[in-house]
Specification:
single chain, alpha+beta, 4 helices, elongated
């Protein structure tokens, strides 16, 4: 495919079907400014993300049926979107101090300015650990698995909030898990509690280490001052002995 107009943008690449020693399919595709919602809906049945962006996909699958091919897929992919949104949860609402339950559901929307991610595909499972979402109030990272064969998601989005009067620096991870047809999206309050506990532990540890370092320096300074005094006493004593010895030579 030299160039084709599809999903509101341009696609190029190749698609190969080989039935020489059992059915296999392979392909490479680059998309420019494509409508991500239409693309993901047609390719994966996932319609919760909107925006226009660039995509790259390289894959290989083998098997006697579509189900077998999907469960055998290997390859890699990437996604780079400009302004867009994700339905199902509202990260900005979570930061506003409201009810976390109201920030999830079909009416909840997370609006972003940019989204970037790369994926590896193995045995029909897309794995990602470098999702980056940029928005006005926050940045968010994400990692997890998207099982194409089983049509299931196990994914966590973790915000890094810009501290201000509205958010207070609050960070609430969001979990996406379950089958695509009945995907469960919820704020991971346990993970938030663990993060807060770890942050408090890190703070206390840093404070303890700072105190220990200050005490160590103080002890070193005391020891150095004591050593200097002893050195001065010894020098004075040696000087006195030398002076007495010299007087004995000339008396």
């Amino acid at each position: 495919i030299v160039e084709a107009q599809a999903f509101g943008g341009a696609l190029n690449g190749q698609f190969v079907v080989n039935n020489r020693n059992g059915l296999s399919v392979a392909g490479e595709m680059d998309g420019k400014t494509v409508a991500v919602q239409a693309l993901l809906t047609d390719m994966a049945g996932f319609d919760r993300m909107r925006g226009a962006g660039d995509t790259q996909l390289s894959f290989l699958g083998v098997g006697p049926s579509l189900d077998a091919i999907m469960k055998s897929l290997s390859g890699n992919a990437s996604l780079a979107i400009g302004e867009g949104d994700i339905t199902g949860f509202d990260l900005a609402s979570l930061f506003g101090g409201g009810d976390a339950a109201d920030a999830v559901g079909d009416r909840a929307v997370t609006i972003f300015e940019a989204l970037n991610a790369t994926f590896t595909i193995d045995q029909g499972v897309m794995r990602n650990d470098d999702l980056l979402i940029a928005a006005n109030l926050f940045e968010a990272t994400g990692k997890g698995d998207i099982d194409l064969g089983q049509q299931r998601i196990d994914y966590t989005i973790r915000p890094e909030v810009f501290e201000n009067d509205l958010t207070g620096g609050l960070s609430v991870p969001v979990r996406l898990e379950g089958p695509w047809a009945s995907l469960r999206i919820y704020p991971d309050l346990e993970a938030m509690a663990r993060d807060r506990l770890k942050a408090e532990e890190d703070k206390l540890r840093a404070e303890a280490e700072a105190r220990l370092e200050a005490e160590r320096k103080e002890l070193e300074e005391r020891a150095e001052r004591r050593l200097e005094k002893e050195k001065e006493k010894l020098e004075e004593k040696v000087g006195d002995e030398i002076r007495r010895g010299l007087r004995g030579l000339f008396d």
